[in-house]
Amino acid sequence: MEQKSNFWKSAALYGLYIGVAIVLFFVILYVAGQTFNTVLGYLTYIIYIAGLVMVQIHYRNHTLNGEISYGNAVGIGVATMLFSGIVTTLYNIIIYKVDPGLIEQFKTIQEEALIAKGLSEDQVEAAISMSMKFMSPGFMAIFGLVGSVLIGTILSLITSIFVKKQSNGDAFDEAMEEVKNEEK
Q1: In this predicted model, what pLDDT tens digit does every residue of 102-135 receive, in sequence order?
Q2: Is 105:35 a contact under the CB 8 Å cutoff?
Q3: CA-closest candidate to residue 50, choices 170, 180, 155
Q4: What residues pair up with 68 in beta bridges, in sequence order?
Q5: Model confidence, pTM
Q6: pLDDT by residue (tens digit) across 52-82?
């Protein structure tokens, strides 16, 4: 039972750490006027990956006695990203309420991108109208959480490859013992 409580405790704690790190990064981007800079936005993946590896290693070394299966590593990563998603989603809802001009900036950037793709004015208006429906706090919360868990799943599937650690020595020793017994 303690292993299960440590699972959620580790996931919540590291999810909070990752979420706060991402929010601080977003605040820096906001202050610098780079909120919608996609290139800088990709740096969040470095924060996510570092946080996931840290929680997976911590959980492996402190809860599972130095061993973790691939599935357990993925599980702790996804749970961590759920908590991280809660923190970052709350930030996004708050920042868009505090600064409604961000929605207009987002709208302008979208319009320019759609026009650059060669869409007609009617198509651009329809696309913008549709996307603005999803800028409500409810939709932002749903998409933020689902997106965070989805990203967490993908990144955890990758990081778990490098973090998993299981003792294979016992299986080898058992196989060798069987071979010795058969020879007798």
Answers
A1: 888 888 888 888 888 888 888 888 888 888 888 8
A2: yes
A3: 155
A4: 165
A5: 0.82
A6: 999 999 999 999 989 999 999 999 999 999 9
- Residue 99's Cα: distance from chain center in Å? 25
End-to-end Cα distance, the chain: 44
Q: What is each CA distance from 40 to 33, 121, 136, 163, in whole angstroms?
A: 12, 30, 25, 27
What's the CA gap between 168 and 171, in Å, rounded?
A: 5
Residue 134, φ and ψ in degrees, nearest 5: -90, 5
Task: Find where tokens 């793709």 sit.
Answer: 117
Measuring CA to CA, which residue among 99, 92, 98 is closest to residue 134? 92
Distances 115 to 31, 111, 131 between C-alpha atoms, Å: 28, 6, 15
- pLDDT number for residue 169: 57
**CB neighbour list of residue 77: distance below 8 Å, 6 or more residues apart:** 52, 55, 56, 152, 153, 155, 156, 159, 160
Residue pair 152/78 in contact (Cβ under 8 Å)? The answer is: yes
* 148-177 per-position pLDDT tens digit: 999 999 999 999 999 998 876 565 666 666
